[in-house]
Amino acid sequence: MKCNLSCQHCFLHQEVRDQKERMTQEEFRSLVDNMANDFALDPSAEFAEVTIIGGEPTLMPPSFYTENIPYLRKKFDETNKPISLTIVTNFTTTNALKRYAHLFDIVSTSYEWDRFDSQKLILGSNSSKKENWWKNLKEWTGEGRKVAISLATTTETIENWEEMFELLYSNGVRFFQVNLMHPDGELMKGILSDEDYEDFCRKRLSILTDPMEKMNHHYKAKDNALWPSFEKEAEFLIALTLWLDKKDDKELVIYPINSHKECLNGGTGNSDIACPASGALCVTTTGEVSGCTIESGKPNMISYGNAFKDDFQEIVNSELRMKHTMSLDLKPVECLGCEYYFFCKGGCSFRELFWDRSNPNAECHGLKSYFEFIKNNYQN
Predict the structure, then answer these.
(1) Closest C-alpha among 173, 176, 294 to residue 236
(2) Is 5 inside a domain boundary?
(3) Entry pTM
(4) Engineering a disulfide at 131: which of 50, 124, 239, 304 sits with its beta carbon 3.0 to 4.6 angstroms away?
């Protein structure tokens, strides 16, 4: 599905974002049937999170959603298990979105300080996509509509986080989701040297499907112009947690901060940061299936099969899926011995490739120092 933006930090490759393929109604409903059936038959699956992303999903005709989302809702309701349905949009086109937003539990959009144009346009001083985004946001919240803001921890976002959050908060945003940067796609291309990027591309498949192979690889960002260090990410989350406390607004929610507090107090893992690939199914507009959303952004993705051509249960039980999820789930011994392993399960394998395990004082990709801050200040 085509996207009308070209963000540097996107995990989708540009050639994938330029593709114009769309699901037909028949393909979408067939996929819904298979996924709802798999959800119903899986005793370990207690709650379904269904998310529609792109590309840019609002480029689809509104009739696609008005005709098919009620069908999706009906099929999952028949499982007698709860479901949360989200659409993720870049919010540059909201007129059509208003016609079907009520069909979703959550309307989510992304924003970073350096998104769209130069940061000087954040207040809309010139005509730009950024100005249009802000106009749409103010109009949306001004009409009493709720929106969730997800943001990636880009360097400029972290450097300007407080001004950005204050601005969004003052414009009616009360739900935020902080996404730690996941290096792949255009982001991986931008942060590695040409030599390291070529090496990663050659070895990517074996790193992600051979449980032991990824332990032999480590990469280092050529600079921190786009992606900050793990230390900077941890410092940002600590400062943001204190900002949340200072606001003292019960309607204000920031994930994963709220869930960090709840999970650490309860001694349970946090699905907001633990890798979800073993329990997830991500399907592209052409029907290719993987467990990791990042894969959907690859020209040659790790595909367990095609949902429009192959037997769905064979895809779910495929050998490649087993190898892929085993590799993602396998963590270094340093992770297994950490007191917070129960909590993050080792985090994201892509981020793990940039963790200097040889340095005991280095911040880990899971941001252990932030967990320690939460434990020391919020644990009952």
Answers:
(1) 176
(2) no
(3) 0.88
(4) 124
